[in-house]
Amino acid sequence: MTTPPSVPPATTDRPVHAAGIFALSGTRTVHRLGFGAMQLTGPGVWGPPADPDACIAVLRRAVELGADLIDTADSYGPTVSEELIRQALHPYPPELLIATKAGLVRTGPGQWHPVGRPEYLRQQCELSLRRLGVEAIDLFQLHRVDPQVPAADQFGVLAELRQEGKIRLVGLSEVDVPTIQAAQAVVPVASVQNRYNLADRAAEPVLEYCASQGIAFIPWFPLANGALARPGGALHRVATELGATPAQVALAWLLARSPVMLPIPGTASLAHLEENCGAALLQLDETQRAELDAA
What we know:
This protein is an alpha/beta fold. The chain is 36% helix and 14% strand. The protein contains 10 helices and 11 strands. It has a 7-stranded parallel sheet with strand order 3-4-5-8-9-10-11, with helices on one face. Strands 1-2 form a two-stranded antiparallel ribbon. A two-stranded antiparallel sheet has the order 6-7. The longest helix is centred in the middle third of the chain and has 15 residues, at 118-132.
């Protein structure tokens, strides 16, 4: 990983801080490059990882590098990711925001099924509180809107949990603009987590709506780039110019794309973690941004 020479030395110990900050719902401030904890599990996001100690080391190093937003879900493992986070980081630093999700049940590796019954979402919130060892969940996200349950009922239980002080902020995942608006009629929405990356911008209308509303947009699968990273591709060309990796440039492009963008790249590798966090130090010029925008 090559650090641009213009980066002040003070930022290199905690490179994530160079990404800037965002205030969720205007109240809770985090740096805009977080850490996604989905990969701290076994294959198919199922069962424990092969090396739990290595995953604990990655979590601790992410915080050392300045990450103060860690995103997880009750379904990662299931339960494994939340349990590792507590083992690695509890008692949590006051600046650390842990976001978790409920609304998908698991029946095996790679198997995901939406369940949005209010009693189930409430139960999962209570279990996440215990596993994470907190009195309130900083950001509780509806992992999917269950099409078999009235959406207003799903949003309603999130509002109730917030009123009860069991969750502080509410987020949604994989939603369109009308769904966000329907949720906003019931409960304040602090974040939206949709798939978005340089090669897949289908959620562009959602990003634009979030920007207009001051809602954090958390892109999952942020590093998908495919042919763009191959020699001759836009990512490869810009990475070569900057002395960086294609993954770093992909993350830098996301950070530059919108001030509401909060990428959460995940990994179980310390080397990849260091690389991802170093993306916050990259500065894309207008020509490089335009080339990537057009890719």
